[in-house]
Amino acid sequence: SPLSVVNRQSRRLRILSLSIAIGIILMPAASAIIGAEPRPQARRGRILIIRGVLNVFSLGLDELACKLSQRGYRVDVAPPEMALIAAQTIERECRSDPSQGPLVVIGHSLGGRFCCSIPWKWRKSGLSVALVVILDSNPLTAVADNVERCVNLYVTNRLGMFHGQEVWAVDPKTDVVNLDMTKVTRPPGVPEVDHFNIDDS
């Protein structure tokens, strides 16, 4: 009948209108999902960053930690007085889940001393360290034989203080790089590297 035809057309119109309305509502969300930046994939790697004394002269390491975290690495930042506790936590977690490695330790000034001492402690648990980065420190101990590579960036000055020194490894298989940053040619206008800005450099 004409009335049933009108009812069917009216129902189709209501369904079409409802579909259009839902589409309009969901469109911004769909656009946001399609245009969103992909989240960084979690990468294998556990990084411990240790600041220097007083916890105020190594703030450049915080920026480094943010960049590494944005790239998907798991990063722990600790002041020197908490470094051993952080290292114990990482050791315990890596023993229960070895896939968290490889391990990396980065430290500035007093934190740089822990860069050499912590791998010795991890060695007792059979943990290997892929990379150690020392920023202007006097480690007071050799690089352990469970470290694959050590990069030691330091400065020298006439004062005989606030500067680092070369390090050495007990195992010749450990790749050690000692680089005096005061001898590196800098572009014009770039300030000299010293103990207090090497972490920002």
Overview of the structural elements:
The chain is 36% helix and 18% strand. It has 201 residues and is of the alpha/beta class. It has a 6-stranded parallel beta sheet, sandwiched between helices. Helix 2 links the parallel strand 1 and strand 2. Helix 3 packs parallel to helix 4. The longest helix is centred in the N-terminal third of the chain and has 34 residues. The radius of gyration is 28 Å and the shape is globular. About 13% of the residues have low confidence.
What would the keywords be for this entry?
globular, 201 residues, 36% helix, six-stranded parallel beta sheet, alpha/beta
Residue windows where pLDDT falls under 50 for at least 5 positions: 13-38
Radius of gyration: 28 Å
Order of helices and strands: HEHEHEHEEE
Strand content: 15-25%
Secondary structural class: alpha/beta
Broad shape:
globular
Mean pLDDT: 79
Count of strand segments: 6
Q: What's the tally of helices? A: 4
Strand order of the largest sheet: 2-1-3-4-5-6
Q: Helix fraction? A: 25-40%
User: Which sheet architecture does the biggest sheet show?
Assistant: 6 strands, parallel
Distance between the termini: 84 Å
